[in-house]
Amino acid sequence: MHTKTGSRLPIENFFVPCMLTQRNNTDYLTQECTPERTVSLAFVFKGTIIPPALPNRLICACLSMWTLKEYQGRKLMFSGFVGLSFDKEHDIVVCVEGNKILLYLVHKRSKGLIIPDIASSVRDCLFVTLERISEFYQSTIHCKASSKLPFLTEYSCSTLNCFTSENKLVSETEECLCKHGENIKNNWRTWNKKKEQKQCDANCPGDALSQIPSNTELLRLSVNCETRMVHDLALHLGMEEMVWSDMVENYPTNTQMVKFLTLMHLKENEITFTELDNGLREMEITAHTLCVVRQRKQVKSSISDDILDCIPSDEIVDRLAPLIGKIVFQLGIELGLSVEEIESIKEKCDRDLTAQNKEVLFTWRKDRTVKPTIRVLEQAFVNIGKGARCLKEVVKDVDPNTLKAVEIVTDKIRENENSIIQDIQISQILDHMMTHLVISADDRRYIEHYPRQDDQNKALLDIVIKRREPVYSVFVDGLRIYGYEDIANDLKCDFSPSPVSAETKGLSVWNFPLYKVRLQKNYLKVITDILHENIVDHLITREVLSVDDGKTIDSGKNPQEKNRNLMDMLLRKNEQGFNEFLKALKKDSIYADLADQIEKTEVTSTDMATLHKCLK
Fold first, then answer.
1. Which residues of the chain fall short of a pLDDT of 70?
2. Using CA atoms, how far apart are residues 74 and 503, in angstroms rounded to an integer?
3. What global pTM score does this model have?
4. Helix (H) or strand (E) run with residue 97 in it
5. Using CA atoms, how far apart are residues 380 and 337, in angstroms rounded to an integer?
6. HSE (CB half, 13 Å, CA atoms) of 454?
7. Cβ(608)–Cβ(517) under 8 Å?
8. Exposed site from 192, 197, 276, 607, fewest CB < 10 Å?
9. Quick one: which of 183, 67, 62 has its CA closest to 122?
């Protein structure tokens, strides 16, 4: 539901618990949720079991907040179990065991690199969600509302199966030992970082020191360190002054780039956090400088959640790219692109900054390991010090309903892309789309200039994705009409077409020749009903077409192809050509009614707006 207007937002999927009967039979818990990489807590309920409705609602809420994870080609969603990706470094697992709902946060490399802000935000999200679900559940069974929660929170040690009550942890100061003699306070701090806390704890975990920093971690370190400090640290760890000088010369106005590439140079020599830590200590600089890699800058967003949780459309990317500036490398790294990908983009786009930024955003958006939302993009801008003002400006007038519809359309096409590209013949579908004005004669010519069918299909899909409604619905109808009902059913979406955009409101019918609209609205009728020879002869006689045009028309393999060639030419002619075509039809009594129908075809403002979108 739209938070401001109350209108219903498009829904792509529904969660139906009774259809999930299989228990988790993957080895994800044993292979990935290891003590070296995982922290865990449990929401423990009174009684021996939890009512099934409660964890089901929690799992449903999780699916709306984070991306369902795939592991070994399988989606991690089972009865009482769900695996999710928070980002490319952190995974979340929620599962039910007896009277406990277990929450695991798993880091790709080491639990010492888990960002406490992420852990605390995940914990808070699930705690509040469970609290509200419990209240709702109690209200449905007419229980008297209680101020006490029906569950307690407990935190595990590194064994992941030994839990200590939060009440005991809060009451202790520095240490709270479990039965294995482990101080659970360390894990507790990871889950309970205070929002206003900028410095890490004095005894912050050091079990990640053996790891080689990731590109993103080095970027965060470079953004938060002074240029002189990075220079001195690099030289202290063995980098030559000449290498630094070369970087400064290559990027004289971009000190952020110099700092980042300096740290990347150290990484190429497989430097670890331990060596960085030792270097800082030897230089008498606090080793807590490294803790910035475990921190995420707070975003005070003024963009609505409805927008933040959507994937940016092509239009948003197009408008945003020129505003980003000279941070292509930093933005690409923060969004998870490899150095090789960014270098390839820079080479492909040469010195065009806007094109580089656009390609970085498109490359990031293609990867659906983690849903590439506007929220993720906003966080990336803040992390690299850019700030999100440019993003706020771009999305301020965006309709979340339209954005969600774009997202659904794009995902459905992606899921069925192989079938569409490999299995369908599009000539008749293009006829259908021409008749409904959602593609132009130029579009058709562009699509069909590709010799291979699969390339034609790809070109058509690009148009459908970019223009959305009503193109998408007409395309799906065309599939259904011309024998591809299974694909059409897979692509079917239950949302209302977008209203005419602000750009086309008030569009005068005189902005586009009425005769062309009338002709195109009868496209299918013309190519299926007429024999072209006499009509073409008349048009050549009246100098509307040339003799060569006639030969081109006759080069079609069948009558319909010949008529398509004729229509392609007529839609490029002036009004005199249109009038001569009607005269040619009226000369033959068989086609007199068709000529009359074309001449009297109604042209609405919606027709004009639809065709206008093809010409933008």
1. 1-18, 139-147, 171-173, 195-209, 287, 494-511, 616
2. 44
3. 0.73
4. strand 90-97
5. 12
6. 6
7. yes
8. 197
9. 62
